[in-house]
Write a structure and sequence with these properties.
Helices cover 60% and strands 11% of the residues. The C terminus is likely disordered. With 149 residues, it is mostly helical. The protein has a 3-stranded antiparallel β-sheet.
Length: 149
């Protein structure tokens, strides 16, 4: 029975979003394993391709404990995919930064993910734009300050 105030359409949308997330997560874990990475290591690596970050900020973005991030970065660093650097703005802080090898691995990993790309390719530009804008609204992000593709 539906919780009071939740209509069947909302329940169906919630269920569909859950299914999409689960399928993406499963494929991401499988793709990461092909590169001898855990899903968490792959997420850290992908995040660091955007910019070097302190451990605390990585933990905030991935919603986990900083001590977990330290272990993940240690393992990525041992493989030569990530390095630690002093923060130029505060030499007391260490930044985790992707290496050239790590950037290549992250690029290959991203290109091996078919689940999201293939169904999205079946949508028109207008449909993808509408979906993007709706997802941003659901996340509380303003769409007008982002570049429109």
């Amino acid at each position: 029975m539906a919780p009071q105030g939740t209509d069947p359409l909302t329940l169906e949308v919630i269920e569909l979003i859950g299914s999409v997330v689960a399928r993406y997560h499963d494929e991401y874990e499988q793709a990461a394993a092909e590169y001898s990475l855990t899903g968490a290591q792959a997420r850290v690596l992908g995040l660091l391709t955007l910019e070097p970050l302190p451990m605390r900020r990585i933990a905030q973005k991935l919603k986990c404990e900083p001590s977990n991030i330290t272990g993940l970065v240690d393992r990525l660093e041992a493989r030569g995919l990530v390095e630690r650097r002093p923060d130029p703005g505060d030499r007391r802080v260490k930044l985790a930064a992707v290496t050239q090898e790590g950037r290549g691995t992250a690029r290959q990993l991203r290109s091996s993910l078919d689940f999201a790309r293939e169904p999205l390719a079946e949508l028109s530009t207008e449909e993808r734009t509408a979906l993007r804008d709706l997802l941003r609204r659901m996340l509380g992000e303003r769409g007008d300050d982002r570049p429109k593709d």
